[in-house]
């Protein structure tokens, strides 16, 4: 169970449910987990939960879009531990800010660029800073990025978000090629809709109202193309992340790992 014992992990934008699941899984498998958010209060409960389950966790204040803050925090983690083994960034974007659900002829340029700057931009900042310290300490760690299946589907009215998702996948492959010579892996988790999360439930509520259908009918749209009649869970995502950064995940590098139980409409 402790296949990550002795490893050091940093989780950025850890206030979200996905990042929290990854942090819990890393800690359960023995890693020292540093969790960060823009406000300390946003990750206090996460740290308490990890410690209650006999894991090691420490909270920090970092804006995942502030390059100076990211670098300073990682520098301190490395100074305290002499190594950095894995970094995960769970940053997301409020769908209305990203123009999701808005026709491309109506969405503003700012809405289109929002997810590219916020989501992809943050992944770039945290990953390249982590790679720098992994190279310096010869940690041969893993950069674990996050995207969504929108990169591979043909869904209307999602231009900005879909573009950002595809960009993160491309960034993953570029970094794998660039940092592989230092023994650093770059992998991207591509998550399907996690129906248990507050973000997806909020979207189902809003989109159902806009479409004039029930929330149950809208939920069915999220699962209509499922190959297996089961939906991915946060716990499964966390355990998959722990596998990918561990010794048994060594074969995965530059890969986009789909976590959706199989979809007929995903390439």
Break the fold down into its secondary structure elements and pairings.
Layout (H helix, E strand, L loop, with lengths): L7 E5 L4 H12 L3 E6 L6 H9 L3 E6 L5 H15 L4 E4 L19 H29 L4 E7 L10 H21 L5 E7 L6 H14 L3 H9 L10 H12 L10 E4 L8
Parallel strand pairs: 1-2, 1-4, 2-3, 4-5, 5-6, 6-7
Helix pairs in contact: 1-8, 3-4, 4-5, 6-7
Short summary:
This protein is an alpha/beta fold and 267 residues long. The chain contains 8 helices and 7 strands, in the order E-H-E-H-E-H-E-H-E-H-E-H-H-H-E.
Task: Provide key terms for this protein.
267 residues, alpha/beta, Rossmann fold, 2 domains, 7-stranded parallel β-sheet, 8 helices, 7 strands, 45% helix, 15% strand, globular
By CATH reckoning, the class of the largest domain would read Alpha Beta
Biggest sheet strand order reads 3-2-1-4-5-6-7
Approximately what portion of the residues adopt beta-strand conformation? 5-15%
How many structural domains does the protein architecture include? 2
Structural category is: alpha/beta
- Element-level helix/strand string: EHEHEHEHEHEHHHE
The global form is globular
Mean pLDDT: 92
List the total number of helices: 8
Give me the CATH architecture of the largest domain, please. Answer: 3-Layer(aba) Sandwich
Secondary structure: number of strands: 7
Rg on CA atoms, Å: 18 Å
- Helix % is 40-55%
CATH fold label of the largest domain: Rossmann fold
User: How far is it from the N-terminal to the C-terminal residue, by CA?
Assistant: 34 Å
Classified in CATH, the superfamily of the largest domain is NAD(P)-binding Rossmann-like Domain
Low-confidence stretches: none
Query: What's the story with the biggest beta sheet?
Result: 7 strands, parallel
């Amino acid at each position: 169970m402790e296949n990550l014992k002795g490893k050091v992990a940093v989780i950025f934008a850890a206030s979200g449910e996905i990042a929290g699941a990854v942090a819990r899984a890393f800690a359960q498998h023995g890693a020292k987990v540093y969790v960060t958010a823009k406000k300390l209060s946003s990750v206090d409960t996460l740290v308490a939960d990890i410690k209650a389950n006999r894991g090691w966790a420490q909270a920090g204040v970092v804006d995942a879009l502030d390059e100076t803050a990211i670098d300073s925090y990682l520098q301190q983690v490395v100074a305290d531990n002499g190594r950095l083994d894995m970094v995960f960034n769970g940053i997301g974007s409020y769908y209305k800010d990203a123009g999701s659900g808005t026709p491309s002829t109506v969405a503003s340029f700012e809405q289109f660029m929002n997810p590219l700057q916020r989501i992809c931009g943050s992944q770039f900042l945290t990953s390249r800073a982590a790679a720098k310290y992994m190279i310096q300490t010869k940690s041969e760690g893993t950069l674990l990025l996050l995207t969504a299946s929108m990169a591979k589907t043909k869904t209307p009215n999602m231009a900005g978000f879909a573009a950002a998702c595809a960009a993160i996948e491309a960034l993953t492959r570029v970094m794998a090629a660039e940092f592989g010579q230092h023994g650093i892996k770059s992998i991207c988790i591509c998550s399907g809709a996690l129906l248990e999360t507050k973000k997806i439930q909020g979207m189902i509520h809003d989109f159902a109202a806009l479409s004039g259908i029930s929330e149950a009918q809208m939920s069915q749209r999220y699962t209509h193309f499922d190959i297996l009649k089961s939906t991915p869970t946060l716990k499964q995502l966390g355990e998959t992340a722990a596998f990918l950064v561990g010794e048994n995940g060594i074969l995965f590098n530059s890969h986009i790992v789909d976590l959706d139980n199989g979809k007929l409409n995903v390439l």
